[in-house]
Specification:
Elements (H helix, E strand, L loop, with lengths): L2 H5 L3 H9 L5 H15 L6 E4 L1 H16 L11 E5 L26 H8 L3 E6 L36 H8 L6 E5 L5 H7 L2 E4 L19 E6 L2 H11 L23 E5 L8 H15 L3 E6 L6 H16 L1 H6 L8 H11 L3 H22 L4 E5 L27 H7 L3 E8 L5 E7 L5 H14 L17
Helix pairs in contact: 3-4, 6-7, 8-15, 10-12, 10-13
Length: 471
């Protein structure tokens, strides 16, 4: 394997190369550090490259392996984290200018668990400022500039985990940790053509992570394969005394039968033709090893309004000091500079009514989807949005998409995975999404792995441009 082949290998392959002494963790870490330096700024993917910590951890990984003490499949594998997760050795900026010098003297629980598994932290990766809490409407919503998909840097990498998505797709890290409140793993996974897994609410501790919406925030992996996502999730999951919402739960998979799936009714309505074509092709593949039930409808309800009412109240509380101090005027996005005051003005009665309605809607969603191991839909109705164009003007209204699966899935706290399933306009990737029952992540990864053994989209590589050669 040459250096390029190694850089684009999935994390489990990298772990096997290290375990078999085909490459050392130090050598692999230096390869990724070099790629982060060469390509990170080009794609707006990086905030801080952590040379000292990365090489220290890589040397420790090599010593342990030489002593016959491997820690598991991720031993020695370099990774990056979205810059809302505390890690010693770098600022934790939350993607926002007011916090660009913020430093924590501890590691978040996810970082601790990955270190215990022998993984090597290389970088704090870029994100949309405050994870999009104040309602940004364009890609340039971070003090590091817009995230750009490696497939076409004139287009957005997706938010708010813009850096993790771009870094994984560009082969800058072995895998990455992102976060989702309402689409922030699924969107960059689709726009960057990688495998992103949003876990069940409570599966992964959020200790050390920026709060945006306490009742919906989740941390999860973005990887180059579904099998990687499965292993990384298992590594970072479990109860943590520092996060009372976190739980120890089993990982049930589908055993002894074909997975049962259903397509979300009207899933491709108002989608780009390439999105529809790729989704229909994906369903033909899924039919090979899944039992496909008739289409299932998402229960009717004001999902978006309910999510907004709860989100506004919790976001305003999370950033109350920033808003009241007036420092939100330092944010990059024009919309974000005023958006904080808008969420700050939300009403307590709207929040309470939203939480009441949420419980009813969540019960209806669980009942509707209970017969299935997964419900299937295109991750998004379009390919990535162009950089420099407001999101609401990026594509004609006919491609607006009628099905919003983000709000139902995140309100209910259920898991979902997005895997690449083809390419569309401008050479940009499209995504296939599988949403499951609470705690049913491994049923989803089982289906996703079956899909990826029959397709090659997750093995495709973008042609990269260094900062020096970029327009």
């Amino acid at each position: 394997m040459n250096a390029e082949d190694i850089a684009f290998s999935d994390a489990l392959t990298l772990g096997q190369l290290i375990a078999k002494r085909h490459i050392s963790s130090v050598e692999l870490t230096n390869l990724y550090l070099s790629r982060l330096e060469k390509y990170g700024a080009t794609y707006g993917a990086v905030v801080t490259i952590m040379h000292d910590r990365a090489l220290r951890e890589a040397r420790a990984a090599d010593r342990e392996l030489a002593s016959g003490n491997p820690r598991g499949p991720l031993h020695g594998v370099p990774y990056g984290v979205k810059d809302l997760l505390a890690a010693v050795g770098a600022p934790t900026t939350w993607g926002a200018a007011p916090y660009r010098n913020q430093v924590f003297d501890y590691d978040g629980t996810v970082v601790k668990k990955l270190q215990a598994a022998g993984a090597v932290l290389c970088a704090k990766l870029a994100m949309v400022e405050l994870a999009g809490g104040f309602g940004y409407n364009d890609a340039d919503a971070s003090f590091t500039g817009p995230g750009r998909t490696p497939w076409n840097r004139a287009f957005w990498s997706g938010g708010s985990s813009s850096g993790p998505g771009a870094a994984v797709a560009a082969g800058l890290v072995g895998f990455a940790i992102g976060s989702e409140t309402n689409g922030s793993i699924m969107v960059p996974a689709a726009f960057c053509g990688v495998s992103g897994l949003r876990p069940t609410y409570g599966r992964v501790s959020r200790h050390g992570a920026m709060a945006l919406m306490w009742t919906s925030d989740k941390l999860g992996p973005l990887c180059r394969s579904a099998r990687d996502a499965e292993v990384v999730l298992k590594t970072i999951s479990g109860h943590d005394p520092n996060d009372k919402t976190s739980r120890d739960e089993p990982f049930p998979a589908v055993r002894g039968r074909r997975p049962k799936i259903a397509v979300v009714k009207n899933a491709t309505a108002k989608s780009m033709p390439a999105v529809v074509e790729n989704f229909e092709a994906s369903m033909r593949v899924l039919h090979e090893f899944c039992d496909v039930a008739p289409d299932v409808a998402v229960p009717k309800g004001p999902w978006g309004d309910v999510f907004g009412a709860i989100f506004n109240g919790e976001c305003a509380a999370a950033f109350r000091d920033l808003i009241e101090s007036g420092r939100s005027r330092e944010l990059q996005s024009v919309d974000d500079r005023v958006g904080g005051y808008q969420v700050y003005g939300s009403l307590a009665v709207d929040y309470v009514d939203g939480m009441r309605c949420r419980a009813i809607l969540n019960d209806e969603l669980r009942r509707a989807f209970a017969p299935y191991d997964a419900v299937v839909h295109p991750t998004l109705s379009t390919v990535a949005y162009p950089v420099g164009v407001p999101f609401d003007k990026a594509y004609p209204d006919k491609y607006s998409g009628e099905i919003d699966m983000g709000s139902p899935g995140n309100l209910a706290g259920v898991p979902s995975i997005s895997v690449p399933n083809g390419f569309g306009d401008h050479g940009l990737p499209t995504g296939l999404a599988l949403m499951g029952r609470a705690w049913g992540e491994f049923a989803l990864t089982q289906i996703a792995k079956g899909y990826q053994t029959r397709t090659r989209f997750h093995l495709e590589r973008p042609v990269l441009h260094s900062t020096a050669s970029s327009p």
